[in-house]
Design goal:
By secondary structure, this protein is of the alpha/beta class. It has a single domain, classed as Alpha-Beta Complex (Spore Coat Polysaccharide Biosynthesis Protein SpsA, Chain A), CATH 3.90.550.10. It has 3 helices and 4 strands, in the order βαβαβαβ. A 4-stranded parallel beta sheet has the order 3-2-1-4, sandwiched between helices. α1 packs parallel to α2. The longest helix is centred in the first third of the chain and has 17 residues. It is globular, with a radius of gyration of 13 Å.
Length: 117
């Protein structure tokens, strides 16, 4: 089934946040009750971010990994994530969960998920 919700998260040297984010994000997104994907964009990380994201990808098939060979910046990473997103409701977030995905004003209350966490 195609996702309706696409969470787009840029990563740059975020190895310390990957596992905590996934432990919190995937159960919360599943509880929203709509098909979803999590588009993780690695922006040229030099630490173990990609390795940890690939391990999470094995546990969570909803995780889509997009990689840059070098750092292009957060804006470029979010833009690439949105370009890769298949859901009708794309929403950016951060690897630290400081920016929470929220319901867009263009979503109807009957068809859109509520705030994820």
């Amino acid at each position: 089934m195609d996702p309706q919700l696409s969470l787009v998260i840029p990563f740059y040297n975020e190895e310390r946040n990957v596992d905590a984010l996934c432990q919190r994000l995937f159960p919360a997104a599943a509880a929203a009750g709509v098909p979803f994907e999590v588009v993780c964009v690695d922006d040229g990380s030099r630490d173990r971010t990609v390795e940890l994201l690939r391990a999470q990808q094995k546990l969570h098939p909803e995780l889509v990994l997009v990689r840059f060979a070098r750092n292009h910046g957060q804006h470029a990473a979010i833009t690439a994530g949105f370009a890769s997103a298949r859901g009708a409701w794309p929403s950016p977030s951060t690897p630290t969960c400081r920016t929470r995905p929220r319901r867009s004003s263009t979503w109807s209350s009957a068809s859109a998920p509520a705030t994820i966490w």
